[in-house]
Amino acid sequence: MKRLLYPIMRWSSRNELYHGWPMAFYLIGYLVYFNIIEMIPRTYYLRIALPIDRVIPFCEIFVVPYLSWFFFVTIGLVVSYRKDRDAYDAMSTTLMIGMTIFLLISTFLPNRQPLRLIEMPRDNVFTRLVAWLWTTDTPTNVWPSIHVFNTAAVWMAVMKSDQPFFKRLSVRIGITVWSVLIILSTVFIKQHSMFDMLTALGLIAVCYIRIYIEHGVFRFKKWDAFALKIEAEAMEDYRRRREERKKRKRRAQKKA
């Protein structure tokens, strides 16, 4: 079993990934738990909608920034991990808090939104993308919007960073425009209600106070020490076995 971990340990050690494993484990657990919640049949769902949602037009082109959210969050985590570990810690802490609250709400207050169109008003590549999205993502457990919350969490960490790369005007303008487009996309393609958006922004404001004003950031120092120890032991065991194989190979060559 230990040998199966060698490639992962070597890759992690070479790229100094030990500090990122808690977030990776959390995301795996989050996805598993969320899918379990989605599969559980519920007899009652809290209806999430506001009158203004009926006024907001359906704009299928916003499916592009909506889908780009997956790249946005991934790029935010990876770049902050490489450029500014403090920004990464603040970002991952915010994500963990918000996503955990979302799972708790989805568990004890199952909800759904009734905003999706019965029939697409047009037929183009964007409406087809929206139709595909609606078939893969149910309109249940949408409050608060994780799309909005995670986008704001990444934006907030970048804007609070003192790292020179993140302080570039082009980077700050680019990430701000991208963030706004993603947030607006949630209501323009009828994936979320304005209520989902506003409560997600309210939650991010609370997280801002906790993380950036009260400095409640997870540093994972104990995990780092444990992970580095495991990596060192694995690498030492790998080198020892590799030397033993070389010695056996040389002995076999001499006998031949």
Description:
With 256 residues, the chain is mostly helical. The chain has one domain. 69% of the residues lie in helices and 2% in strands. The protein has helices at residues 6-15, 21-39, 63-83, 85-108, 125-136, 146-160, 169-188, 194-213, 221-255; strands spanning 46-47, 111-112. The radius of gyration is 23 Å and the shape is elongated. The mean pLDDT is 91.
Count of beta strands: 2
Distance between the termini: 33 Å
Number of helices: 9
| Major β-sheet strand ordering | 1-2
Question: What value does the Rg take, in angstroms?
Answer: 23 Å
Name the poorly predicted regions.
Answer: none
Please outline the helices and strands.
Layout lengths: L5 H10 L5 H19 L6 E2 L15 H21 L1 H24 L2 E2 L12 H12 L9 H15 L8 H20 L5 H20 L7 H35 L1
Parallel strand pairs: 1-2
Helix pairs in contact: 1-9, 2-4, 3-4, 3-6, 3-7, 4-6, 4-8, 6-7, 6-8
What brief labels describe this structure?
256 residues, mainly alpha, two-stranded parallel sheet, 9 helices, 69% helix, 2% strand
Give a quick rundown of the structure.
This protein is an all-alpha fold. The chain is 69% helix and 2% strand.
